[in-house]
Sequence to fold (650 residues):
Amino acid sequence: MASIRDVARLAQVSPATVSRVMNGTANVDEEKKKRVLKAIEETGFVPNEVARSLFKRSAKLIGLIMPSIENPFFTQLAGAIERTADKHGYRLVLCNTGSVIEKEKAAIQMLVSMNADGIILTSSNDEIRNYTSLCNIPIIVTDRSFNGCGNLKIVHCDHYQGGRMAMEHLIRCGCKSIVCIKGQQEISSAKDRYDGYKDVCQEKGIKEQTVDCAYDFEQGMKVTDELLKKYKDVDGIIACNDMVAVSVYKVLHNKGIRVPEQVQIIGFDDIALAKLMSPELTTISQPIDEIGAKAAELIILKGEETQQEYIFEAKLVERETTRHN
Amino acid sequence: MASIRDVARLAQVSPATVSRVMNGTANVDEEKKKRVLKAIEETGFVPNEVARSLFKRSAKLIGLIMPSIENPFFTQLAGAIERTADKHGYRLVLCNTGSVIEKEKAAIQMLVSMNADGIILTSSNDEIRNYTSLCNIPIIVTDRSFNGCGNLKIVHCDHYQGGRMAMEHLIRCGCKSIVCIKGQQEISSAKDRYDGYKDVCQEKGIKEQTVDCAYDFEQGMKVTDELLKKYKDVDGIIACNDMVAVSVYKVLHNKGIRVPEQVQIIGFDDIALAKLMSPELTTISQPIDEIGAKAAELIILKGEETQQEYIFEAKLVERETTRHN
DNA sequence: CTGAAAGCGCTTACAG
DNA sequence: CTGAAAGCGCTTACAG
Fold:
């Protein structure tokens, strides 16, 4: 690998001049510039980013800390972030934590020591907040909304509004016995979604019917079984997210219960899977691309933005698991 | 951020000694060691990985170059790689290329300049091979099998065998008119799968029935429409991968064609989606975890391994879209 | 416009 | 066992 010295020697200039030509940080004599360009070409020189990063204190790196890249919602979020990062010449470092707080802490520390420019964090551990203030790079929390401090910014969609929309849609579709599968209430997105459902119940004088579940396929199957026993007349199900909605459908399908004729289903997130499955899933769509892009931009376009919290609207997407009229 | 000098000053030793304590690279007087440890504790010192990497010429980084993290097969592969990398203290840098060769080249260059320890490459461009020889770090090609050169190693599953198994299974299930949806033949995995199908046809004296498609959901829908027109008596479909199998099912479902009663379907890959959908998809399973782990280990456990190509067996997973007898 | 020098924060021969 | 020095490969004041 050629170094800047090799190029300098070949072009008969100093390393400083090579640097200036590469980066356009100062005017350089045309003649010398040509020699440098030629020498770079000939040596196949590529500047060492590590050395550059050591000096600049920026590695053009965004750290992505999430429970698992294999969770479809996070996959798509990562995709959106990557696209925005790439556009600006930034790279993503992936840290899966399985929601283990020690791993989250370790990841933050490691990213800081790598001179990452910022971190996008999707944690389910509330206490992680205590560790985010220790580092001097911006941390963007997505999909959650705990109260920020200092270098913390938050971007997510309006889960509460989405929760309301889900319930209102099922009512509009004529459901008389709606059951809400609540997500884990320690996770703010799950709580907000449920609160939306609950408030609509209160306003309309409808009795709450709920069941508890994690954001998880396996549990979704188990909980659906329980749900069917507990609420025998159910004709509408609000799943806490799409993955659970898919498992609800599977259980109903296996029991020969027709969707949407006998039971209607609505999910939350609008992951790609929602329109891959048959029947296609009606769901509350999060603008994942916008959320990812905004999170990345908050790091890349540092400081310009003063807002602390960015909230995007959720949107109803009617497909085949519900039927209007 | 405290630096090694701060720690040294506080502990009244030289930076070299601090380094030796941290890394255990030499014996250090017990007394001094204690002072250093205490000073690290007090300052919250975390060594700067960039500086370390500049010296060591290793950043403990694995570059992952793939068309898109949002392709479920690659998502799972990335997950498997990440797990293995994490176990050994390595991090993943994500580079989505959309199969654009310029982006692939740029990614390789950038990873080299970041002092990455190796690259795991899943490209669909054959010419990329010409650029892999330029860099001095190991490059592991997965899911493809072009002839390697120098620092190239290859790990993938036995697509040919898998292709045979798919066809043999459908025959065993009593299908009389089997259609094979061929993937793009420039991609070696697609070609190998098709070759497996083709050879079984020849051995059994069955006439080939095929249709062309990309590894893609949208195209899968379109191609299935054509397939149904071209082969009206079809009762078994071999999809080039699971994503296409899902789209095949959707089209059949929409037309009211029952699966597996009227038409049986088999996919390839065994992505998570295969057992999420209803009915669950029969498919040829790739050992994605093992492939990812092996690819990562080839980089991490450098040089130990002399083999140039690692081939894993595919496995039939019978689920609900086919019916044995 | 341009080069010599210092420095980014570590690590490791080297000498003692 | 341990410190001073050199160096990893860049960049940017500084001086001319």
In short: Residues 3-5, 15-16, 19-20, 23, 25-26, 47-56 of chain B lie near DNA strand C (CB under 10 Å from a C1'). Chain B touches chain A through 50 residues (CB under 8 Å).
